[in-house]
Amino acid sequence: MFGEDKGVHMFIVALRNQNGKLYKGVTVSDCGAKFGLNAIDNGRMWFDNVKIPREMLLNKYADVTKDGEYVTQFDSAQRVFTTSIGSLVGGRVTISKISLQCMKVGLETAIRYSYQRRQFSSPSSQMENKLIDYPIHQRRLFPYLASTYVFNEISYSIIAEYREFLELDPSDPKSEIMSKNIHFLSSLAKPLCSWEMAKSLRSCRECCGGQGIGSVNRIAVLIQDTESFLTFEGDNYILLQQATRQILKDYHIFKTQSMCSDRISFLNNSKKMPSPVDLLDKNFHIWAFEQRERLLLNKSVELITISLTESTDAFEAWNKVILYHS
To answer: CB 137: neighbour CB atoms within 10 A?
Structure first.
């Protein structure tokens, strides 16, 4: 406005008139058949010099008065934009939860089937063994079953925090802090949950043999309908990069201002390795994971620093470090 960039804003745009005809400058197209989720009708649209009235602006966080004055409760265009698209975070939280539920459905089907299906027998037995009795079959299913317990806790924890965030007024200083943290958590949970779901459903399908292909058992249908979760609400690899950037920002603040966020609280943990080592002791595993995260974080910062000394292009330096962790 008046030569000043106010950032990205959302508008409602009518596509057709009362007779169902497209307005001038509006073009729409159907996306056609898809790999899955064909019950959802997706399409494309183009706008060419389409003009709309001021009232079509979604003005909860920013508005333009009749006198042409731009008003907002926020102090930056970036804050207006991030608050306006905050609903996308809800989509990522939801996909994480749905991914978990799909994992449970597939695993229940595959595990129940493995208790019924018999195949081969030892020379000393007259009855064939159940599939679940074979260690290799257990290895293909039980790690994913264990994952559902982990992701179940993660999912409910994020949902609880997201609900608390939705009850806050956007102008509340706590709202911005919670918004960043939920964005960080959902950017981690959505890729990890959806990737684990995709791998588990594939394993469940294979463990059911020909039965896994039948639509009646739902596994094949779930594979089709959930494949898009890997790119819904943001490509998984991009979301993980966003979470990584937040960790690196926290690390910079920790090193320059001695302020440690909850996200990197393990850096303040100077506990020594539990002795004696007990692989069944959760404290040992917590210590091991913290050591691993500390090592990876320090190595990442080191590689970025080296890359920046070799080139002033921060974009290229970042991409080199991403390759290191891929």
So the answer is: 19
